Amino acid sequence: MDERTTVTEYLRLGVRFGRLAPRLLHGYTGDGRLLSEVYSEPPPAPRELAAQARRLRGLVRSGDLPARRGEFLLGQLTALDCLGRMLAGARPSFGARLRACFQLDAVVGEPEPYERAHAELDTILPGTGPLSRRMAAFRERDRVPPRVLPACVRALSTALRERTSEVLGLPGGESVDYRFVTDPRVSGLHHYLGHGRSRVSVGLAAPHRTASLPRLIAHESYPGHHVQYCRRRSPCRAPEQAVVLAQTPECVVAEGLAERGLDTVVGPGWGEWARRVLSGVLRFPHAELAERVDRALRKLSGVRGDAAVMLHEHGCSRERVCAYLRHWLLLDETRATALVDLLSDPTPAAHAVVCSEGERLMVSRTAQDEVVGTARDYLRLLEEPHVPRTVRAALVAPTGDHTVE
Would you give the DSSP letter of residue 143? Predict the structure, then answer.
């Protein structure tokens, strides 16, 4: 089977999974004829799809695809094999699922970086008394009133779109529509509609803060998930990128890049930038402090993934995990309990690990743990087919290549 046929069969397989479990197919930007052909087929069976993934994996190993593209397909197909078996009733351990679907290990982070983040917050946050109390006071002061949230979101989106266009470039005809929903489980959620258009849902019930709202909009829209999908329409992209699949290794890279978007298009000083952007909507006098707090809190981003691993891999009690979250994330009992409730579902739990490890994968590209690198670096990772294994290989040999195994 030649390269083109192998890639086409991968695209067909991805769409077949989307027929079986629609949430697995996040997007398709390829030939509409393939989509029509797959949807005219008899309904697929999960075990059959898993077998197809294994067969294609063997063809990729024996083929002559460029190494990075081959590694991408191997990672994606390994995940689809696992997902097919899960849809057929298999119940792999949480750690086995992380390895097969995301190329990640189920480990709990060391406490030293979290301790340093707490020490940094202790220095930054004003006032006296316990750190948790001062953090709660800051969060209350930093809260965005729901009545002005839509105006804040649109102002930030407009400004981020301009910066993204200047730094990375944007295709013509793209757009993002924002919806504001009352679902308390939704903070921000991107959905690609096709043809360069996206819908981003923002939760009105979720507590939003001026210290985190710019990063949320950058993550979901500019230059995050919306731009990622728009770039997949480029004629220069690898053909296998026409299908976007949830719960696969490509998600780790996508989440990491989205989380680093604000740093790439705005960079240090984004707090003052956000103050100016929001000046006509909301007073933001503590912009510099908010940026410093955000920088420290992001060093605690692995805590949610830790909690997921503790629940599903180590079998820790809800009470112990809740205490862990309260201590490291400086949460009150209500918020910590709500987070444990969310992480009790293995799928959101896996996503928590993906988000934290995705960002860690990106920041490991620099010595100072500040940004993903240059705009060129961001664009390359955005446009090329990558999975965690290929990003790690690039860290070892940035200009070299590696062998498909």
Answer: B
Nearest Cα neighbor of 369 from 381, 358, 360 is 360
For the chain, what are the domain ranges? 111-396
Nearest Cα to 299, choosing from 107, 108, 109? 109
Among residues 225, 251, 203, 261, the alpha carbon closest in space to that of 102 is found at 251
Per-residue pLDDT, averaged over 369-391, amounts to 78
* Cα–chain center distance at 203: 18
Name the pTM for this structure. Answer: 0.92
Query: Could you tell me how far CA 46 lies from the centroid of its own chain?
Result: 26
What's the token pair of residue 325?
A: 């979250």
78 and 105 in contact (C-beta within 8 Å)? no
Q: Is residue 398 pLDDT above 70, yes or no?
A: no
Q: In this structure, what token pair is assigned to residue 147?
A: 């009545």
Burial 149-186 (b: 16+ CB within 10 A, else e): beebbebbbebbbebbbebbebeeebebebeeeeeeeb
- Residues in Cβ contact with 363 at an 8 Å cutoff, skipping those fewer than 6 apart: 260, 369, 370, 371, 372
pLDDT at site 291: 97
pLDDT of residue 257: 94
Distance CA 359, CA 352 (A): 11
CA–CA separation, 15 vs 155, rounded Å? 36
Phi, psi of 74 (to 5 degrees): -60, -45
**Among residues 282, 168, 310, which one has the least CA distance to residue 214?**
282
Rounded to whole angstroms, the Cα distance separating 332 from 244 reads 37
